[in-house]
Amino acid sequence: MKTINFSMKRVNIIIILISTLMMLVVLNLPFKAKPFGDDTFHVEAKNMARYIKGDVSYDKVTVTKAPGPIIFYSIPYLIAPSTATDNQLWVYATLFTFFIVTISLLLIFKIGTSLFSKEVGLLAVVLFFIFPIHCYYSLGILAEVPAFFSLTVALYGWTIAFQNPNKKAGWILLIFGLWFLILNRPNTLLILGLGFLIIGYSFFKRKEFFKTYGKKLVLTFFAVGFLGMGTLQLAKVITGTKSGENQEGLFYYVAHIGRFQFREEPTDFRFWDNDNRADSKDYQNWGISGTELGVIIDKTHKPSNQVYKEFLINDAIEHPFWFTRQFFVKCFYGHVYFINSVQPKDFHLGPVRGIAAYWFVMLIINCVNLLLIFGAFVFLFKEKNLINYWPFWAVIVSLLIFHGLTYMEPRYMFPSRVALYIMSAAGLYSIKWIQNKVNFIAKFVFPINTPTN
């Protein structure tokens, strides 16, 4: 009897080597993610690590935004010496994120292999290497990599649970992955709501699915919700009155931006900051609105969150056309990429430079994005049992709903690319021409079949 026998160790080595090469290439590109993001995660993780070491007092410890990145980056900062400078801490963090991203790619290969085939697993990883945006985000102290890792673990856990519902490891990994995903991207709490809708649908329409997974999924969602909300509340307790910033205030601030994003300029995809959008009508109107709301707060003495909340609700009701158009434009914008760290006129990549070079590179990058989205749609169209892959599409839907209604940046959708790439690989592999090309590459990656008894 002949069976396919390929060495996972060999595939893992190839993934690690190519990941290292891609990281070195991206590290030397003339454009990079901001090393410390907006500084919040870096400063708070640094203070958390130093408090644990006993180097600073408790009053320095705050968690004003998502707690996940603080936990994540505290790990390499704990390893670093107490005297490390910010730049040295960045090196520790970057090495740690590279390690985590590489583990994620190894898991992505396993997910694709387990649910579909080793060729689909290979194609999913190849798609990441074609457009290594994961390496780009690995070079900043951001929420993107820990969220990316979280979803990878969740999908890996579901893969195990789906194939062996009685195996506790799968459900534990699913709970941990979803919980940590919410800590890094609290907006993904919507996936729990979608999850309960899926359970309800399966109860009436997919009896076999509900019988096998329904009760365990209910427990999973309640566990994730309890742990997630509990940790977010703990973050508030830790911060207390030590900072005026908090999750609720941040939400209303960002949602207020969202009411002006693509409002009267639906094709202006420039990044939302003063360097890029100073001449933008939407950006200017956002500033004017913020000033007006500030005056209302001063006159009425209402809490700022209440004033912003009232504005958001009234504005959506008064401008339903803008609200609807903005939602769909934001959903589109979340899947296209532009390099905002450099102006088009200052762009250079090796010998090519200037505005024409910038837009040519953007065209190539977004053609790859379109290919990925096309592959995912092929999968969704052809797959008859989409409920089996609920976490793959549910996380994308939840992020699109939240950011379509509030404020969108492509990086907010980045964690969902784990699911997108795997679905895309499965869809693209069903196309004969692509299947033949992948099978050809697979001959050089996987050992030759050997006979076994």
Percent range of helical residues: over 70%
Low-confidence segments, given as residue ranges, are 1-6
Count of DSSP strands: 4
- What order do the helices and strands follow? EHHHHHHHHHHHHHHHEEHHHHHE
Structural class label: mainly alpha
**Rg estimate, integer Å:** 23 Å
Distance between the termini: 6 Å
Membrane topology: Multi-pass membrane protein
Pfam families: PMT
Keywords: Glycosyltransferase, Membrane, Transferase, Transmembrane, Transmembrane helix
InterPro entries: ArnT-like_N
Q: How would you describe this structure to a colleague?
A:
It is a single chain. It is built from 20 helices and 4 strands. The chain has 453 residues and is mainly α. It has a two-stranded antiparallel ribbon. A two-stranded antiparallel sheet has the order 2-3. A hairpin with a 2-residue loop joins strand 2 and strand 3. Helix 2 packs across helix 3, helix 4 packs antiparallel against helix 5 and helix 8 packs across helix 10. It is globular. The protein starts with a strand and ends with a strand. 37% of the residues are buried. The N terminus is likely disordered.
Summarize it:
This is Phospholipid carrier-dependent glycosyltransferase. It holds the Pfam family PMT. With 453 residues, the protein is mainly α.
Search tags:
453 residues; mainly alpha
Please outline the helices and strands:
Blueprint: E1 2-3, H1 8-27, H2 40-53, H3 67-79, H4 86-115, H5 118-130, H6 133-137, H7 144-163, H8 168-184, H9 190-205, H10 207-239, H11 247-258, H12 274-277, H13 281-300, H14 304-318, H15 320-333, E2 348-349, E3 352-353, H16 355-382, H17 390-405, H18 410-413, H19 417-429, H20 432-445, E4 450-451
Antiparallel strand pairs: 1-4, 2-3
Protein name: Phospholipid carrier-dependent glycosyltransferase
Membrane topology: Multi-pass membrane protein
Keywords: Glycosyltransferase, Membrane, Transferase, Transmembrane, Transmembrane helix
